[in-house]
């Protein structure tokens, strides 16, 4: 059965549009984290209670603890900038984070990370894939605790600290 010229033209147009769409997505994606572990920053040891989280969460938590151990509270607050509707909460954390800097630098930090959930409606999942929420509980070397609210937007993890309990 011969392929008609109209069908062939439509097939070529669909392929071209698909390729253009894929190229646009590739160059417009925002799933590269705008933060990284610093080679110049303090060396931190992060252990996990339970299952180790995926590499992106582990990288976020390592950067968080490293910035906290360095006393870089503004850098810790910047890790909340992409958190949906929560970046203001990160800026309020400075008051209770400053005294925790020495605790974070004192030795091993243990993290327990909850499973990732994505309770968004399907329409939001389609519009912005790679979303989800979680939380991590950090136990600092001197026994102090800290909870971090986490959210993934467009494949990048963001988070802010909640006031420590005790």
Walk me through what this model shows.
The chain is of the alpha+beta class and 166 residues long. It has two domains: 1-30; 46-162, Nuclear Transport Factor 2, Chain: A. Helices cover 39% and strands 19% of the residues. It is built from seven helices and five strands. Strands 1-2-3-4-5 form a five-stranded mixed β-sheet. The longest helix is centred in the first third of the chain and has 24 residues, at 5-28. The model has no long low-confidence stretch (mean pLDDT 78).
Q: What's the total helix number? A: 7
The spatial strand order of the largest sheet comes to 1-2-3-4-5
Rg: 21 Å
The helix-strand sequence is: HEHHHHHEHEEE
Number of strands: 5
The shape, in one word, is elongated
Determine the structural class based on helices, strands and strand pairing: alpha+beta
Tally of domains = 2
Straight-line distance between termini: 76 Å
What's the pLDDT, averaged over the residues?
Answer: 78
CATH architecture of the largest domain: Roll
Question: What is the CATH C-level name of the largest domain?
Answer: Alpha Beta
- Main sheet makeup: 5 strands, mixed
Stated plainly, the CATH topology of the largest domain is called Nuclear Transport Factor 2, Chain: A
Helix content: 25-40%
- Uncertain runs: none
Keywords: Signal
Signal peptide: 1-25
Protein name: DUF2939 domain-containing protein
């Amino acid at each position: 059965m011969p392929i008609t010229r109209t069908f062939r033209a439509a097939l070529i147009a669909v392929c071209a549009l698909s390729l253009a769409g894929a190229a646009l997505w590739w160059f417009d994606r925002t799933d590269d984290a705008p933060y990284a572990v610093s080679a110049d920053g303090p060396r931190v040891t992060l252990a996990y209670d339970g299952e180790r989280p995926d590499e992106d969460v582990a990288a976020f938590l390592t950067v968080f603890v490293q910035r906290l151990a360095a006393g870089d509270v503004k850098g810790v607050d910047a890790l909340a900038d992409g958190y949906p509707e929560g970046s203001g909460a990160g800026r309020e954390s400075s008051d209770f984070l400053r005294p925790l800097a020495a605790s974070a630098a004192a030795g091993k930090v243990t993290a327990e990370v909850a499973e990732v959930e994505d309770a968004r409606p399907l329409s939001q999942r389609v519009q912005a894939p790679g979303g989800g929420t979680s939380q991590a509980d950090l136990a600092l070397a001197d026994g102090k605790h800290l909870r971090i609210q986490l959210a993934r937007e467009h494949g990048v993890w963001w988070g802010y600290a909640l006031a420590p309990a005790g």
